[in-house]
Design a protein that fits this description.
alpha+beta; globular; 7 strands; about 40% helix
Length: about 190
């Protein structure tokens, strides 16, 4: 699911200094037009990169995915180019991204193996962002957004990473857990629940 790939790209942009955690992102008409799940900001509404990244991971907000893409790369299309370049560098040979939020597109494909490669890269390259993937909720203004990753509350040692659902592929999860200093990642795609 692209939200995790997007999170990796945002973390890389932060590390390179292209954006700062307090950089303001503005909601465009393009962002507003995305299908739910959303944060539901109005055109012109703003949030910081830090809050946007948290909302992206916790809520899977498709509007925020577009806001981040536009804010980091100037456009959705330019960000997707970066996502595909990063996927190639990671050896994700069965992945091609067509948008930053994972909404249905016949050109967009991935595999469990490729998502495991992406999860490993995020864990190894960006340990400073590990806590975002383990957040049970994020507060934006008066809204409290809760994660769909129930493993964080029910599975001892669970520490991430990302859930996803679209009608075309069903329920998906990239889950990670750490016990006794050993971290394992599981990827499950296309389930009915």
């Amino acid at each position: 699911r692209p939200k995790k790939a997007k999170a990796k790209q945002i973390a890389a942009a932060l590390k390179r200094g292209e954006v700062q955690p307090d950089t303001k992102l503005t909601c465009t008409k393009n962002a507003v037009d995305q299908a739910p799940s959303k944060l539901w900001l109005p055109v012109g509404g703003q949030i910081t990169v830090d809050i946007a990244l948290k909302v992206l991971i916790v809520k899977s907000a498709n509007d925020v995915a577009v806001m981040l893409a536009e804010g980091v790369a100037g456009s959705e299309e330019a960000f997707v180019v970066r996502m595909n370049e990063a996927a190639q560098k990671l050896g994700m040979t069965r992945t091609h991204y067509a948008n930053p939020n994972g909404l249905p597109d016949d050109r967009q494909v991935t595999s469990a193996r490729d998502l495991a490669k992406l999860a490993r890269a995020i864990i190894v390259e960006f340990p400073e962002y590990a806590d975002i993937f383990a957040m049970p909720s994020v507060t934006v203004g008066k809204k409290v957004l809760r994660t769909h990753n129930r493993l964080l509350a029910s599975f001892p040692g669970a520490d991430g990473m990302k859930t996803a659902f679209i009608c075309d592929s069903g329920f998906n999860v990239v889950a990670s857990a750490t016990r006794d200093g050993r971290r394992l990642v599981a990827v499950v795609l296309g389930e009915p629940s």
